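Quick question, first post here. What does this chain look like in 3D?
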Amino acid sequence: MIFLKLGGSLITDKARPETARLEVLARLAVEIAEVRAERPELRLLLGHGSGSFGHPAAARHGTRAGAHTPDEWRGFQQVWWAAHRLQRLVLDALLQAGLPAIAFPPSSHALCEGGELIQLAAEPLTRALEAGLLPVTQGDVAFDRRWGATIVSTEQVMGFLAASLKPKRILLAGIEEGVYARYPQKDQLLAKLSRADLEQSSIGGSGEVDVTGGMLEKVAWSLSMSQADPELEMHVFSGVTPGNVRMAILGAALGTRVKA
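> Answer (accepted):
Ran it through. Tokens below.
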């Protein structure tokens, strides 16, 4: 079982609102299709970020911090719509490549409390995997018992599902070659990253709007996942270079290995 996330910075231009990198999406879909043709027994969960679609809308409406007023709930709906416009483009690329993709947007089956994901309907997704389909999830809005609403990241969804699906590898494909000791200065690419390395490094957030924390949040999440399951392989790598996603799924150790 492999979890693969296509980062929002990889599949969209985060400096330009609602601008998808359609050629990149098409190439990545072909790479995934090639792997499935070569390894039909492989089980893969695909997730993607919201990039320049969901993040600017969420920041504009303050949705991560909750929704209570009619205007805030209208903002919640607008963020949902922005995120799902990108999801449709992702699905179109996957289907064009011949992949049996089926969407599982968190907004339809997730529940949070104080920003923490506490419920997610995992069985339908598990059944999709058993049927040979390619389940696709994403960063999305979610209802929250305490705040009314919030944003749930792709990493939160994958972290929740890992308890039942027990992936052997989690692959985070973005535009960076891996994790740098100093970011965003991009000094010293790290082959491996532990919690001790993180304490000695200077890793900041994203250079663009990212309501889920950017690189620092992703690294912290990866370390927590590795600590929870020492056998789990976590890699942060670049999906920009053609063939990298395909090689990573097949087992190549690209980018930075994150291990608590």
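The first strand starts at residue 2 and ends at 6.
Residues 2-258 form a domain with the Carbamate kinase fold (CATH 3.40.1160.10).
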